[in-house]
Design brief:
The complex is a heterodimer.
Chain A: H1 4-9, H2 24-34, H3 40-46, H4 50-79, H5 89-124, H6 132-154, H7 179-207, H8 220-251, H9 265-299, H10 306-319, H11 335-347, H12 349-365, H13 372-394, H14 397-403, H15 407-437, H16 443-469, H17 486-516, E1 546-547, H18 554-557, E2 562-566, E3 574-578, E4 585-590, H19 597-611, H20 617-634
Antiparallel strand pairs in A: 1-2, 3-4
Helix pairs in contact in A: 4-5, 4-6, 4-17, 5-6, 5-7, 5-9, 6-7, 6-19, 7-8, 8-9, 8-10, 9-12, 9-15, 10-12, 13-15, 13-16, 15-16, 16-17, 19-20
Chain B: E1 5-10, H1 24-51, H2 67-79, H3 81-92, H4 96-121, H5 132-162, H6 170-203
The chains are: A mainly alpha, B mainly alpha.
Amino acid sequence: MKTAAEKAKQPPIKVPRDGPKLTGTKLDAKLAVTWARPPGFIGWLSSVDHKDVGRRYIITALVMLALAGILAAVMRMQLSQPDNDLVSPARYNEIFTMHGTTMMFLFAVPVMQGMQLYLTPLMIGTRNVAFPRLIAFSYFMYLGGACLLWFAFILNVGPDVGWFAYVPLSGPQYGIGKRPDVWAQMITFTEVAGLAVAASLIVTILKQRAPGMTLARMPLFVWTTLVVSLMVMFALPSVALASGMLLSDRLVGTNFFNPAERGDALLWQHLFWFFGHPEVYIIFLPATGFLSEIVPTFSRRSIFGYPAVVLSVVATGILSFGLWVHHMFATGLPRVGYSFFTSASMSVSIPTGIQIFCWIATVWLGRPIFKVPMLYFVGFVFTFVIGGLSGVIIAAVPLDLQLHDTYFIVAHLHYVLIGGAVFPLLGAITYWYPKFTGRMMSETLGKVAFWMIFLGFQLAFFPMHIAGLMGMPRRVYTYPAGMGLELPNLLSSIGGFVVAGAVLVFVINMVLSVRRGPIAPPNPWDAPSLEWAASSPPRPYNFAHIPVVGSRSPLWDEREKLPVVHGLRVEERELLLTTVMSASPDIREPSAMPSPWPFVAAVATSVMFVCSIFSPWALVVGAIPGGIALLAWFWPKSPTPHPEPVIS
Amino acid sequence: MSLPPAFSDDVSALPTHAFSYRSVTWWGIIGFMVIEGMFFVLTIGAYFFLMSHEQSWAPQPWDPPNLVWGTLFTLVILASEIPNTMIKKAAAVYDTDKVVALMPWSIFIGIGLIVIRGLEFNSLNVLWWENAYGSIIWALLLLHATHLATDWIDTVVLYFLMKTPHATSPRRLVDVDENSLYWRFVWLSWLPIYLLIYWVPRFFR
């Protein structure tokens, strides 16, 4: 047997490789076998295809959106008239906690990461993500967190301490029972999942871009994915640490947040918002990435000011870590603290403004076509600018102190998050739906849903500004008659149901179009980026040959033939690694085969996390099955190594 | 694919492994260090936040931790870099025999470090539930202990893998190289924590 030193110098072995002699249907047939998912339920659990995992993330997140939406509908019914007793005060606490927690942790971040997982490898011209088993594991962890929260709610032990679970309310003294523990451990699940996806995406983007796709030629959506994934790495540990400290305060009697024993409740707020504010941009920046793809396609020209948009995304990512204290203005701060965080909060609007002006300039200089995705762009600009401006207003401390914890803030955050993230997401789903499914969505139903959600949204959330200015507090289950709050609340409730109807129309459109939509060609919108070079829906291996990129708009600049490299193995899973900056071909890298062990590891970890709500020893005992599952995941499955590397 | 291919370069002659920043797992480990590093940085931030409220640190009447075991741990973990570097260099030149011969040293030193870590917990002069000072000291030490344990298990698994025919795959030596890299993170991250647990509570009495 050759030694490692001898093997390191050996020339490539003679096996079938893609190239001029092996292309077309013959190649497709071989690659389809190599990259296929195993059959049956075990095969489903074993899938490591980024498209499978991305799709699962998106669908699960949309289910979470529906569940949290139902809770929103219940709240709006409760608030539609004064002194209503449809929902008890305690139940109302649970409902707004579940709504916010689900929307932020189980819908918004996962749906964006699902889109990133599905689209990134296609956009950069590779066959799968780096560490595909890690993202398979991450999905099951996310699902575990979602199940923990919602089963707890159904069993009447759901959290009732708000989506940010402030101590001392969530601490051992006031947060009786296991409700806050469920919230805190759900955080652990989702943060493990989110961090795993971020790590995988960063390495994928840095090392697996198509030859020639320098950083300056990367699609803008990929830029936002890179920046957001880095933000996830720096922000998510903060909330994971905070929730870990909360659990240990509650379970083993530490005193991190207990002022009576030298702890500090404000430590919680700092750790939570050091995560919580970047979180807003972790949700918002992918949406700007969607728009930076949609706007050029439907304006029939490349984006105006590509470098400015990239720098804006990077600047937003950096600035977002310097704003967290504006959530804590009401806690009392040194004067210099107020000044710093006010100016930082105002300055973050500058890069976002630059992006919006670049999109408007693109439309202005192009020949825009107002298909449904583009309508969502228009809806975004209108709505997000209002939300952004109300954000600049409340960055001023005196006004913030007046409006803190009122419905004005509720209006602001929904304008920013729905206008800034959900509208672009709906546009993005419509835009990439033909890539996901091979079918087009109905344009008519799409327009109906757009106008319903756009107008319904304004009706639901604009009156909340008024209610807030009139002093209506957040998180209170009802309000007395005769204070002038009846009309804005009734309008909000009516608007809320219009929004719910719009989402229903959108979902019906999605479901009907899977079977009945017109068949989509590979590039139905004549878009410029690489994902549209793959078939619709993409084959399990994405590209038969790895494409070569010579510009920012490869499919607009190469209309006849797609330049490709060749020479990758076709009977084993193999990728091409390129250099970080210039994307020159560097290494042939094996890609992991399907495996059930990530699922088993996720189950073992989930059991450990859930049991650790009740006993700290669960972490010690539970580490054993988790460790065994990880060992089985990594250990090579064949007794001897293959002639060229394989991850079995 | 939507367009017919125009063939350019043949990549079949490219290598199937590489060390350092050319390897995807190297980037994965860097990512892991960033995440874990953030946990350390934030815990250290919490330490200073709690310390800023106190007149003295460690708070009166608690004594600072005893120096013996923590200092011994620091000396041993610094010394562990000697076999670690030797293993890393042997891996880089594909010297499997030397790697297999040296890895038990790392494993035995790791066992020693885990034992000393146990004694450290016993010498902090405060328990985790007594006050927030005790909580944060224990948190720092425990957080680092998890890194110690996981990298030790990783090293043991890798050692047994290197005893199989899979050791003849150059990629396994990349694994060894990167395991050594991670160990550097484990001992480098210990140095500020050592100061915070053992010396800062002496400086600010």
